[in-house]
Design a protein that fits this description.
Blueprint: H1 2-43, H2 47-53, H3 57-65
Length: 70
């Protein structure tokens, strides 16, 4: 019984490591998307006009970056 409890504890630790990895990956992905948006600002002076021209892009980008456009 004790051996089984130790094995269960080890499995839980592995799961925690995976979730931490996923969170860090999500963070880096959001950072990359933020940088992409900054680059877009250089090419397109007014991003709002770009979003109005391409309405389907709004929810997709807003969800990924975590920024809700008013």
């Amino acid at each position: 019984m004790k051996a089984q409890k130790i094995l269960k504890k080890k499995k839980k630790k592995k799961k925690k490591k995976k979730t931490l990895l996923n969170h860090s990956m999500l963070g880096s992905a959001r950072m990359a998307l933020g940088e992409l948006e900054l680059e877009l600002h250089h090419f397109i002076p007014n991003l709002y006009t770009f979003y109005t021209l391409h309405p389907p892009v709004i929810p997709f980008l807003s969800v990924l970056i975590g920024v809700h456009i008013p």
